[in-house]
Protein backbone atom coordinates (compact mmCIF):
# COMPACT_ATOMS: atom_id res chain seq x y z
CA UNK A 1 0.00 0.00 0.00
CA UNK A 2 2.98 2.32 0.41
CA UNK A 3 4.30 1.81 -3.13
CA UNK A 4 4.36 4.64 -5.65
CA UNK A 5 1.79 3.93 -8.36
CA UNK A 6 2.07 5.17 -11.94
CA UNK A 7 -1.71 5.35 -12.13
CA UNK A 8 -4.16 6.09 -9.35
CA UNK A 9 -7.75 5.02 -9.80
CA UNK A 10 -10.14 6.74 -7.41
CA UNK A 11 -12.00 4.30 -5.19
CA UNK A 12 -9.52 1.44 -5.65
CA UNK A 13 -9.67 0.83 -1.90
CA UNK A 14 -13.27 -0.26 -2.46
CA UNK A 15 -13.03 -1.66 -6.01
CA UNK A 16 -10.17 -4.11 -5.31
CA UNK A 17 -11.71 -5.85 -2.27
CA UNK A 18 -15.10 -5.90 -4.03
CA UNK A 19 -13.50 -7.58 -7.06
CA UNK A 20 -11.81 -10.18 -4.84
CA UNK A 21 -15.11 -10.89 -3.09
CA UNK A 22 -16.80 -11.29 -6.49
CA UNK A 23 -14.07 -13.70 -7.65
CA UNK A 24 -14.48 -15.71 -4.43
CA UNK A 25 -18.24 -15.87 -4.88
CA UNK A 26 -17.80 -17.04 -8.48
CA UNK A 27 -15.48 -19.78 -7.23
CA UNK A 28 -18.05 -20.73 -4.60
CA UNK A 29 -20.95 -20.63 -7.08
CA UNK A 30 -19.08 -23.07 -9.33
CA UNK A 31 -20.57 -25.68 -6.94
CA UNK A 32 -18.99 -28.53 -5.06
CA UNK A 33 -17.21 -30.73 -6.23
CA UNK A 34 -16.10 -28.48 -9.13
CA UNK A 35 -14.76 -25.93 -6.62
CA UNK A 36 -12.61 -28.61 -5.01
CA UNK A 37 -11.41 -29.82 -8.41
CA UNK A 38 -10.39 -26.30 -9.46
CA UNK A 39 -8.46 -25.84 -6.23
CA UNK A 40 -6.88 -29.29 -6.66
CA UNK A 41 -5.69 -28.25 -10.13
CA UNK A 42 -4.01 -25.21 -8.60
CA UNK A 43 -2.29 -27.43 -6.04
CA UNK A 44 -1.19 -29.86 -8.77
CA UNK A 45 0.58 -26.92 -10.46
CA UNK A 46 2.82 -26.41 -7.40
CA UNK A 47 5.60 -28.69 -8.75
CA UNK A 48 5.97 -26.28 -11.69
CA UNK A 49 6.37 -23.41 -9.22
CA UNK A 50 8.93 -25.36 -7.19
CA UNK A 51 10.81 -26.31 -10.38
CA UNK A 52 11.29 -22.65 -11.31
CA UNK A 53 12.17 -21.76 -7.71
CA UNK A 54 14.82 -24.50 -7.72
CA UNK A 55 16.18 -23.20 -11.05
CA UNK A 56 16.70 -19.80 -9.45
CA UNK A 57 18.31 -21.37 -6.38
CA UNK A 58 15.25 -20.57 -4.25
CA UNK A 59 16.31 -16.91 -4.28
CA UNK A 60 13.81 -14.94 -2.22
CA UNK A 61 11.74 -18.06 -1.53
CA UNK A 62 11.27 -17.32 2.19
CA UNK A 63 10.02 -13.82 1.45
CA UNK A 64 7.71 -15.15 -1.28
CA UNK A 65 6.36 -17.84 1.03
CA UNK A 66 5.65 -15.35 3.82
CA UNK A 67 3.73 -13.23 1.33
CA UNK A 68 1.81 -16.26 0.01
CA UNK A 69 0.58 -17.91 3.23
CA UNK A 70 -2.78 -16.19 2.79
CA UNK A 71 -3.28 -18.03 -0.51
CA UNK A 72 -2.14 -21.34 1.00
CA UNK A 73 -4.90 -20.93 3.60
CA UNK A 74 -7.49 -19.36 1.25
CA UNK A 75 -7.73 -22.31 -1.15
CA UNK A 76 -8.60 -25.03 1.39
CA UNK A 77 -10.94 -22.67 3.26
CA UNK A 78 -12.84 -22.00 0.03
CA UNK A 79 -12.98 -25.75 -0.64
CA UNK A 80 -14.34 -26.41 2.86
CA UNK A 81 -16.91 -23.61 2.55
CA UNK A 82 -18.02 -25.07 -0.77
CA UNK A 83 -18.27 -28.54 0.76
CA UNK A 84 -20.33 -27.45 3.79
CA UNK A 85 -22.24 -24.73 1.94
CA UNK A 86 -25.87 -24.71 0.91
CA UNK A 87 -27.34 -27.50 -1.21
CA UNK A 88 -28.11 -24.96 -3.97
CA UNK A 89 -24.36 -24.83 -4.62
CA UNK A 90 -23.70 -28.56 -4.25
CA UNK A 91 -22.70 -28.47 -0.59
CA UNK A 92 -23.84 -30.54 2.38
CA UNK A 93 -26.26 -27.84 3.53
CA UNK A 94 -24.57 -27.07 6.86
CA UNK A 95 -24.56 -23.38 5.89
CA UNK A 96 -28.06 -22.33 4.84
CA UNK A 97 -28.62 -20.55 1.53
CA UNK A 98 -27.90 -16.83 1.89
CA UNK A 99 -25.80 -17.26 5.00
CA UNK A 100 -23.32 -19.30 2.98
CA UNK A 101 -22.63 -16.35 0.69
CA UNK A 102 -22.29 -14.00 3.66
CA UNK A 103 -19.70 -16.35 5.17
CA UNK A 104 -17.83 -16.47 1.83
CA UNK A 105 -17.86 -12.65 1.69
CA UNK A 106 -16.50 -12.32 5.24
CA UNK A 107 -13.76 -14.91 4.69
CA UNK A 108 -12.88 -13.32 1.34
CA UNK A 109 -12.38 -9.93 2.95
CA UNK A 110 -10.21 -11.44 5.68
CA UNK A 111 -8.02 -13.17 3.09
CA UNK A 112 -7.92 -10.09 0.85
CA UNK A 113 -6.60 -7.83 3.62
CA UNK A 114 -4.21 -10.53 4.83
CA UNK A 115 -2.81 -10.77 1.28
CA UNK A 116 -2.51 -7.01 0.90
CA UNK A 117 -0.70 -6.62 4.22
CA UNK A 118 1.80 -9.43 3.57
CA UNK A 119 2.98 -8.01 0.24
CA UNK A 120 6.54 -6.73 0.03
CA UNK A 121 8.71 -4.53 -2.12
CA UNK A 122 10.55 -6.72 -4.64
CA UNK A 123 13.79 -6.22 -6.56
CA UNK A 124 11.67 -5.83 -9.70
CA UNK A 125 10.01 -2.74 -8.20
CA UNK A 126 13.39 -1.28 -7.24
CA UNK A 127 14.65 -1.85 -10.79
CA UNK A 128 11.52 -0.24 -12.22
CA UNK A 129 12.03 2.83 -10.02
CA UNK A 130 15.65 3.16 -11.19
CA UNK A 131 14.59 3.03 -14.84
CA UNK A 132 11.81 5.55 -14.28
CA UNK A 133 14.19 7.93 -12.51
CA UNK A 134 16.57 7.77 -15.49
CA UNK A 135 13.69 8.35 -17.90
CA UNK A 136 12.55 11.37 -15.88
CA UNK A 137 16.10 12.74 -15.77
CA UNK A 138 16.35 12.46 -19.56
CA UNK A 139 12.89 13.95 -20.14
CA UNK A 140 13.70 17.05 -18.09
CA UNK A 141 17.27 17.49 -19.37
CA UNK A 142 16.31 19.14 -22.66
CA UNK A 143 19.06 17.17 -24.40
CA UNK A 144 18.79 14.80 -27.33
CA UNK A 145 19.24 11.13 -26.53
CA UNK A 146 22.76 11.14 -27.96
CA UNK A 147 23.80 14.29 -26.04
CA UNK A 148 22.35 12.94 -22.81
CA UNK A 149 24.15 9.59 -23.17
CA UNK A 150 27.51 11.24 -23.93
CA UNK A 151 27.13 13.61 -20.95
CA UNK A 152 26.78 10.67 -18.57
Overview of this protein structure:
- Helices cover 71% and strands 0% of the residues.
- It is mainly α.
- The chain has 2 domains: 14-120, no CATH class; 123-152.
- The two termini are 34 Å apart.
Oligomer: single chain
Number of domains: 2
SSE series: HHHHHHH
> Strand pairing plus helix content: what structural class?
mainly alpha
Task: Write down the overall geometry.
Answer: elongated
Strand content: under 5%
What's the main sheet like?
A: none
| Structure summary, number of beta strands | 0
Uncertain runs are none
Count of runs of 4 or more consecutive helical residues: 7
Radius of gyration: 22 Å
Kindly report the average pLDDT value.
87
Helix content: over 70%
Straight-line N-to-C gap: 34 Å
Keywords: Membrane, Transmembrane, Transmembrane helix
Organism: Paraburkholderia diazotrophica
Protein name: Amino acid permease
